[in-house]
Amino acid sequence: KQRVLSGIQPTGDSYHLGNYLGAVRQWVGLQDDYDAFYFIPDLHSITIPGWDPKELRERVYRGAAQLLAAGIDPQRSVMFLQSHVPEHAELGWVMQCITGDGEARRMTQFKDKSAKQGQDNTTAGLYAYPMLMAADILLYRPQLVPVGEDQRQHLELARNLAQRFNSRFKKTFVVPEPKILPNSAKIFDLQDPSAKMSKSGSNPKGLINLLDDPKTTAKRIKSAVTDNDGEIRFDPENKPGVSNLLVIQSELTDTPIDTLVERYQASGAQYGALKGDTADAVEAFVVPFRDKFEEFLADRAELERILDDGARRAREVAGPVLAQTYERLGLVAPK
Ligand code: TYM
């Protein structure tokens, strides 16, 4: 079996629809045919200063419970916390030592975030973030890394670092391919369909949180920004708002976009119908999602057991890869 690996940060108290449609939904689908590793990069979430320790702990549990609610099955997949597997931080250091300063500074997420926060609030950890992410991936030698479009550049760095290490030392790492879905790689903000949906968007109404009250969710879909030509067709460039709603509905109902468009055009439907149907599709997903989430979150002992088991299975893979890496670098092994 080929291997897949991916991670999702424990942000806020809920994941959003972009996280689900761009990433987690494909993870669920890959569990049968791949040897799957999914983790919560909790060490990445301390790269931005100002978190509250109690809240962080809560977010991590909520993150894990949401992955389970979305359909990650700990029997079939290895699900774990990054901080439980010390090899991530250790290989992260090695990755920093084979990355050029210029290369690291070209990372657009680093540039954007550091510009937004200002130098005084930008940590060296934020700068090192992509190298830790490369370590997260390379430790497991996955062939595929399913992510949304915004992670493409980080993946490219991981590929470059794998190739660099392999040619400078000895073939050690698999050069991973990103797996980015054609339609839902980038779900857009409902209020500003030129921006990706994100926790840090300018208007909360642009965001669909998976754990929001379904009434709020429906309202947000119904007040999504569209355009005024009135025609329902898929044209992301000229009709980003309408196309975003079509993608969301198509993914959640497993109906091809073309089929949806034909149906609307045949019935002469207006945007109101598109929004209503999309809101229904979102509701049909979030209502059971929330129930399952509550159930998983309530059984903390079981969550901890799942994460412990995942960390143990992850270390079985990561430990030997790190040892081999150290050896190839010329570090002396402990006796
Ligand atoms: P994170 O936690 O920001 O996002 C998790 C996943 O959600 C995807 N995503 C989206 N997809 C489509 N539309 C959107 N609007 C949208 N917003 C987010 C992201 O692309 C991602 O796949 N650096 C990573 C976490 C990470 C990681 C890794 C991922 C750390 N180590 C190793 C893969 C492999 C991040 O911050 O994703």
What does this molecule look like?
The two termini are 34 Å apart. The strands form two sheets. The protein has a three-stranded parallel sheet. It has a two-stranded parallel sheet with strand order 4-5. It is mostly helical. It has twelve helices and five strands. The mean pLDDT is 97. Tryptophanyl-5'AMP binds at residues 6-9, 18-19, 22-23, 41, 44, 133, 136-137, 145, 147-148, 150-151, 154, 185-187, 196-198.
Describe the largest sheet.
3 strands, parallel
Q: Any idea what the shape is?
A: globular
The averaged pLDDT comes out at 97
- List low-pLDDT spans: none
Count of separate DSSP helical elements: 12
Oligomer: single chain
Helix and strand topology:
Elements: E1 3-7, H1 17-30, E2 35-40, H2 53-70, E3 77-81, H3 87-97, H4 101-105, H5 108-117, H6 124-138, E4 144-146, H7 152-168, E5 177-179, H8 214-222, H9 240-253, H10 257-267, H11 271-298, H12 300-329
Parallel strand pairs: 1-2, 2-3, 4-5
Helix pairs in contact: 2-11, 3-6, 3-12, 6-7, 8-11, 9-11
